[in-house]
Design brief:
Blueprint (H helix, E strand, L loop, with lengths): L4 H10 L3 E3 L5 H4 L21 H10 L6 E4 L6 H8 L3 E6 L2 H15 L2 H13 L25 H17 L4 H11 L8 E4 L2 E4 L18 H21 L11 E5 L2 H4 L8 E6 L9 H4 L1 H6 L4 H10 L11 H10 L3 H12 L2 H15 L8 H22 E12 L1 E3 L2 E3 L1 H11 L3 E7 L8 H7 L6 E7 L1
Parallel strand pairs: 1-11, 2-3, 2-7, 3-6, 7-8
Antiparallel strand pairs: 4-5, 8-12, 9-10, 11-12
Helix pairs in contact: 1-16, 3-4, 5-8, 6-9, 7-8, 8-9, 14-15, 15-17, 16-17, 17-18
This protein binds S-adenosylmethionine (SAM).
The site of S-adenosylmethionine has 23 residues, from strand 3 and helix 10.
Amino acid sequence: MSSTKHREALEAKYRDRIAVNHNLSRRLVSFQANKDVPLYGLFSYKEGFSADMVRMFIRDYPKRTGVILDPFAGAGTTLFSAKECGFDSIGIELLPVGEFAVLARCAAERVDPDDLRRAVAQLRHSPFDALPVAGRYGFAHIPITENAFPAETERRLNAFLAYVHEHVEPGDVRTLLIFAAFSILEEISYTRKDGQFLRWDHRSGRVGAGFRKGRILTFEEALFKKFDRILADIRSYRMGAGSGAREGAAMEFRRGSCLEILPTMQDETIDLVISSPPYCNRYDYTRTYALELAFLGADNDAVMGLRQSLLSCTVENREKKDYIRRIYAANNRLNIFHDAESAFRSNKALHEVLAILGKYHRQKRLNNSGIYRMVKNYFYEHSFVIFEMARLLKRGGRIYYVNDNVRYAGEVIPVDLILSEFAEAAGLTVNTIYQLPNGKGNSSQQMGKHGRCEVRKCVYCWEK
Ligand SMILES: C[S@@+](CC[C@H](N)C(=O)[O-])C[C@H]1O[C@@H](n2cnc3c(N)ncnc32)[C@H](O)[C@@H]1O
């Protein structure tokens, strides 16, 4: 029997603060509710949450202006919702994928729709694919994207990129034309995003590719469908929700790791944090978004570098302890480094789980040898993110944090409660841990082996 003593004590400690919240449907907490919302649904960032959820948290906050931070900004849902509610915002995101989605959305808000319509009409009537393809604008594959597209699709994609670069001057129209191609890459490819990796259709000819994707749209079909959607969204946005945006609400987007950027920011400057970190679930954003990363010019080394910079959430992530120590030394904040490390080291429930996973690791009972290290470093790195968010928050400020619990080899990891203890160690109050009405079970593999067990899916609300 594995010991669960400390996890049970932790459950007892927070029991009265865990509350099922029927307003937080799975749809609202995921990207699903964004799908048909003008501009939010243009790029399908499946790991995102919805604008409606962000607005709900902003409405609950007593102040009507201020600064909202998202240290894991993804495609910028928090930032654009903040702007619509009249709040300034700061977003930090590691991947250029999110950065380009944000850039394109800003272009969509600014562009003259007539200019865009004219450019699209011109494309419809010009045989752009008959033009000579200039190699330097073509899709530069990395090993994990090779053979992703049918040959004719790739030829047309490259011809389109060459046409746009050579015939459309830099500016919002050009950005949106390129964004349209960027946002259909999965649709026109033999791949499908599947959390931890890309799934490959058998027609790709890749070894082990067994999945059947059905009919794949041609490049032109997908591209012009996307142009129609962009133009329709711009029209609806201008007539509806977007018109309420406070003129001049400032939005700052910083690309890089929040582990590096947060320690450079000033104390007590943030009113609200609304964010969702990578979950401790092995999802590798650098593999699922490999096509988009290569499209944006990342070569193999760059993609591997990004993978290592992710907050540890994949089995490939190596320890970042020395790197984090250097960041804190450079920012003269070694006191915070020690406090955050101490919160990590003294967490009994966490070390109960780690001891068990460590034993299973040595006995080779975990189905991947990187799981133990990933779980340990997920929490280690998170202690710094939480201490930083606590430092940056103004008195009375709040943090809303969306995350799922996980289970490995039958051991439930109460991510919500462990991170809440870190938050308390950082001086925050755990207000409520909102649980979604139906916690999800676990992977069918886990359920078959260890029986069904509800794993909480939560939004935590911490306060300063
Ligand atoms: C759950 S997603 C957030 C999605 C976002 N809420 C949205 O609606 O688009 C987590 C994000 O954290 C990013 N990320 C992972 N490690 C990071 C790091 N060290 N610094 C900043 N961002 C990171 C991932 O690239 C991913 O976009």
